[in-house]
Hints:
Shape: rod-shaped
Oligomer: single chain
Amino acid sequence: MSVRRTARTAPDDQATAPRVVRAEGLDWVKFDRGLSRNGSVPTTWKALYAALASFADQDSRETPDGPEDDDDVPTRPRLAECIGKSVDTVDRATKGLEDLGLVEVERRKDPDNPKRNIPSVYRLLDHEIWDERAAARAAKRKAERQAKAEARAAKKTAEEAGADAGGGRTDAATPGRTHAARVAAPMRPGWPHGCGGSSSSLEDLSLQNARGASGESEKREREAAAPGASGADVVVEAYVRALGRPLVNGSWQELREQAASLLATGAYTVEWLCERAAEMPGRGYRDLVQHAQHPGHRLPGQTGPAAAAGPGERPRATPEQVAALRARLAANGGGL
């Protein structure tokens, strides 16, 4: 755009005021997208807005000042020619654009003859609307970035808190317990409690993780037998591995008490309980006792009705085992 001062000679040989001249050869105009898509705005208003935009400076959005006979000055008759309507229609459309807040009109009187009007100056306010929209979009992006940063910080804090909680138990453990808690060895062929199959469902993936978390039974048995080792801790760690995140201290202790109570009955082995514990996250279970006592689970090496059940029957623990387990749980107040 260029600003040029011109002094045209009027019929009375009086020079006009300086005016803004649009760059020569500019064949396009700025047009508000929202207005162009607003079907409630009359077409004559849109046509007048487009005509005014063709006269207005692209940066200042202001129409030039000058004499009435200048084709670059948007007089009312000139605007009526542009939109193919009457001057009265131009006046109504101008008032409508003013009400929309898109146009500001400086209506002027001839200083030498107050009864006579001279060409008005039209200021298009669309660039202010565009600035407001851009500011709103920038504020929205900034808020989204801040929300994501806060979410990442909260996640990091939670992970660090979980790591600190898990590390505290590991640091306080005896060497035997620390070794017994390492149940994340990869699954080897021949795992005695493998169920087979190659389903890709979420539950089967959880079961595969359970087998991976409780693999190498011979090594775990040796570690569990080490001084200070706890089979209940091994069962809890199998659950944590399958869950994929640490437990808070209260939930960890409750699950450990359940595992200890089940192991104390003598009806369950560490390996068998590890597999049951690792099944729980994928199935949405939280109570190890209820899951272990499910009639569909055959106890390892169990004697009695459950071990002797046929293929179509549902194995159960013996009444003596159930009574002993319930008595121990009632005494300890266990339950997750």
